[in-house]
Amino acid sequence: MKRLIYIFNWLYLVSLSLWVGGMFLLGFLMEINIRFYTLKDQPELASKVINGVMDIFNIHIVYTCIVLMVLTVGIKFLASRKVWAGFMATVVTKRRYTKEVMLAIMILVAIYVGSVLRPQMHALDAQKKANPTDQRLETRFNRMHKNFEWFWTINMLLGLSLFYIHGKEMTRFKEGAGDSVAK
After folding, report:
1. What is the pLDDT of residues 131-159, one digit of tens each?
2. What CA–CA distance (Å, rounded) separates 107 from 134?
3. Which residues are registered as beta bridge partners of 181?
4. Domain of 55?
């Protein structure tokens, strides 16, 4: 059972790395590079490329990461409840379920961004392209994009916090079968 917990822990970290690393890579590096350097003279093509890549990331990759992470948290929760093979959850935060609450917030934000905000932005972008002179559409799109960036920033900070907590847990050495609790 410890090997199974180890494998799921590894899946959790890989999923978190893919999620947070993908947000950094796509949100900062790819978008800036495509919009301001590579395709700056072709804004229509730049928009199409960015939208396509972001759709794949926000729906397929992030949702897969969410499923793997929730599965890992669920199995670790069940293992700690049943105390399978001597498994005891390591707690390094003042509150016991801090990681789970942070992950739940990340999931809610990701679902909102992927299922609500992203389709609204696509619809507004299509209207904006159909009426390029309408400044109100441009202003609304820029406001929505700013909200999108804020939600990504929140998820990146929560993800980095989860890395920090997980790192603290990995550096704790258990003596015996007891929990390791931060003071």
Report:
1. 989 999 999 999 999 999 999 999 999 99
2. 35
3. 91
4. 2-171
